């Protein structure tokens, strides 16, 4: 892909004659809905609103449940007889012939590895609740309906605690080094957004979220409009073309996605088991993102594209962003398990899409230190409070997460061993955005086409095994892998998205008595993500991108270690 300098970018802007904001917007970043156009995206640029990438990540489940199910990689679509069945295949509740209470605390730790030099801590851990549930035997009979059971429980769907920090340098050799300020200048140029005669650019609340960062850059004296006979444009006129740029990035996320279940399971002739679950999901996530740039001239004066020395130059800039997402969702799970022979079980479960309604608050602040080459003094650019913005209103989003299909088969070798295999398909290209707090022309149709273009269905294979060398001792192990949710990696470089996820699990179970059991599980999860950029302006032609102003492509992978302990009591 060819790289275009800032003058070429201005020519592209003028030739496209892009007027108005609407055509440039997607869910969070100003993406043109046409086949060709200029895109402004990136992990730093698109934090001001809930992006399609963020929705996909919030919709991605992890393998949590009881310690027994976690140790067997959640390969429980056909097994049943576990409290975790409520969130996997509720037909498994039909196998209960007694009441049971189970609680599973969890210790989770995540660490990120980046394709750049570490900047700060890249690890995050906490104590949490993986699963809690109670199963109650409502009916026990002697006819065709053998039993009816009800379950109430909580299951952790996803852990959102992680941190990633890194730094890298961009050299000015061979042309101006990429800076986010050039991309922000391009955003305002593309949207034909200029200050009035008194220098007032506009109110943040009256503008679209993707432009807030660029407005902060102007209010912090980092970019300025330029009058030109061929048409006005914006540029980062305090950054010399001979500057080497250092990039600093630190993102910390806290939170989780959990589900509260109400389930029913039915046993028919000890051969067919059916079940249903109403799931109420809760999303809570807090993101804190710091991005900074420093500009190094190696002792030489800063100069513009014509070789003239700059009177004022930026020494460094800081951009802090914070976003909180809180909301609820509801879905339904239906399942059936068939036992053709006593040792063999076949399972089928379908999870409807989860309908979410979430609110999001946002705060951003930009500041910089500049140097005046005439008076040889430094001065801060954050003297203007307009360099910060807090959006604390009720910004509601409504979206539908992927539907999910599970198939499973398990075989019991007497009372000594179990082998279970599950297949799962998640339709990420079926994500639908129902409402955003910002008006976008043809919003529903465009959001649908954008998500279908970026994402695809994933396939997951899960294998679990259990061996009982002694009546009161069980040894367990499992493996799971999930394929990529990314359809076109070159068009989804705005955020790290899961391309491959691997789970390696093990555990042990003890029957402390006839009514009390204790299980322990260890999970290692490796998530390999797609490459992404912190910011970019790019000309799109079909499925190809020609980058105009762009950060380096980066890669961030996550390794998670989960340790769970379950105490189960039958009564």
List keywords for this structure.
571 residues; mainly beta; 3-stranded antiparallel sheet; 26 strands
Account of the 3D structure:
A hairpin with a 2-residue loop joins strand 11 and strand 12. The chain contains 6 helices and 26 strands. Helix 1 packs parallel to helix 4. The strands form 3 sheets. A 14-stranded antiparallel barrel has the order 2-4-5-9-10-11-12-17-18-20-21-22-23-26. The protein is elongated. The N terminus is likely disordered. The chain has 571 residues and is mainly beta.
Short structural summary:
It contains 6 helices and 26 strands. It is mainly beta.
The average pLDDT value, as a whole number, equals 87
Largest sheet: spatial strand order: 2-4-5-9-10-11-12-17-18-20-21-22-23-26
Which blocks of ≥5 consecutive residues have pLDDT under 50? 1-36
**CA radius of gyration:** 27 Å
* Structural class by SSE content: mainly beta
N-to-C span: 66 Å
Total number of helical segments? 6
The percent range for helix content is: under 10%
Which term fits the overall shape? elongated
Q: What's the total count of β strands?
A: 26
Q: Work out the strand percent.
A: over 45%
Instruction: Give the oligomer, counting copies of the same chain as homo and different chains as hetero.
Output: single chain
Q: What is the makeup of the main sheet?
A: 14 strands, antiparallel, barrel
């Amino acid at each position: 892909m060819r790289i275009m300098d800032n003058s070429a970018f201005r020519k592209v802007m003028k030739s496209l004659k892009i007027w108005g904001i609407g055509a440039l917007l997607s869910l969070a970043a100003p993406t043109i809905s046409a086949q060709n156009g200029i895109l402004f995206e990136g992990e730093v640029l698109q934090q001001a609103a809930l992006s399609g990438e963020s929705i996909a990540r919030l919709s991605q489940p992890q393998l949590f449940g009881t310690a027994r199910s976690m140790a067997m990689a959640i390969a429980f679509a056909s097994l049943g007889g576990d409290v975790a069945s409520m969130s996997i295949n509720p037909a498994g509740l039909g196998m209960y012939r007694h009441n049971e209470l189970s609680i599973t605390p969890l210790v989770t730790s995540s660490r990120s590895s980046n394709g750049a030099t570490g900047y700060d801590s890249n690890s995050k851990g906490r104590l949490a609740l993986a699963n809690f549930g109670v199963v109650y035997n409502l009916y026990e009979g002697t006819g065709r309906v053998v039993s009816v059971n009800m379950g109430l429980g909580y299951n952790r769907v996803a852990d959102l605690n992680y941190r990633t920090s890194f730094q890298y340098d961009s050299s000015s050799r061979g042309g101006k080094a990429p800076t986010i300020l050039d991309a922000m200048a391009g955003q305002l140029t593309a949207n034909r957004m200029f200050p009035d005669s008194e220098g007032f650019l506009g109110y943040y609340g009256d503008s679209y979220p993707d432009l807030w960062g660029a407005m902060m850059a102007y209010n912090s004296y980092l970019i300025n409009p330029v009058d030109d006979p061929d048409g006005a444009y914006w540029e980062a006129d305090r950054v010399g073309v001979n500057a080497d740029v250092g990039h600093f990035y630190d993102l910390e996320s806290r939170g989780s996605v959990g589900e509260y279940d109400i389930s029913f399971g039915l046993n028919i002739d000890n051969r067919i088991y059916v079940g249903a679950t109403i799931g109420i999901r809760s999303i809570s996530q807090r993101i804190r993102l710091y991005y900074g740039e420093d500009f190094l001239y190696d002792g030489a004066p800063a100069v513009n594209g014509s070789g003239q020395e700059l009177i004022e130059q930026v020494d460094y800039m800081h951009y802090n962003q914070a976003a909180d997402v809180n909301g609820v969702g509801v879905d339904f799970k239906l399942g059936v398990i068939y036992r053709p022979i006593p040792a063999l079980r076949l399972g089928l479960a379908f999870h409807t899409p989860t309908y979410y309604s979430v609110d999001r608050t946002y705060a951003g602040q930009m500041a910089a230190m500049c140097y005046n080459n005439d008076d040889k003094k430094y001065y801060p650019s954050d003297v203007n409070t307009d360099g910060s913005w807090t959006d604390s209103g009720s910004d509601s989003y409504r979206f539908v997460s992927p539907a999910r299909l599970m198939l499973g088969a398990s075989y019991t070798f007497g009372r000594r061993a179990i082998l279970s295999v599950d297949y799962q398909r998640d339709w990420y290209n079926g994500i639908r955005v129902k409402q955003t707090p910002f008006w976008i022309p043809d919003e529903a149709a465009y959001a649908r086409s954008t998500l279908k273009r970026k994402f695809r269905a994933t396939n997951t294979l899960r294998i679990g095994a259990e061996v009982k060398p002694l009546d009161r001792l069980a040894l367990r192990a499992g493996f799971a892998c999930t394929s990529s949710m990314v359809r076109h990696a070159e068009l989804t470089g705005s955020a790290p998205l899961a391309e491959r996820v691997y789970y390696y699990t093990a555990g042990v179970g003890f029957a402390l008595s006839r009514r009390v059991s204790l299980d322990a599980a260890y999970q290692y999860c490796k998530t390999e993500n797609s490459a992404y950029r912190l910011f970019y302006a790019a000309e799109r032609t079909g499925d190809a991108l020609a980058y105009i102003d762009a950060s380096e492509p980066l890669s961030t992978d996550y390794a998670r270690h989960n340790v769970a302990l379950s105490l189960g009591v039958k009564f």
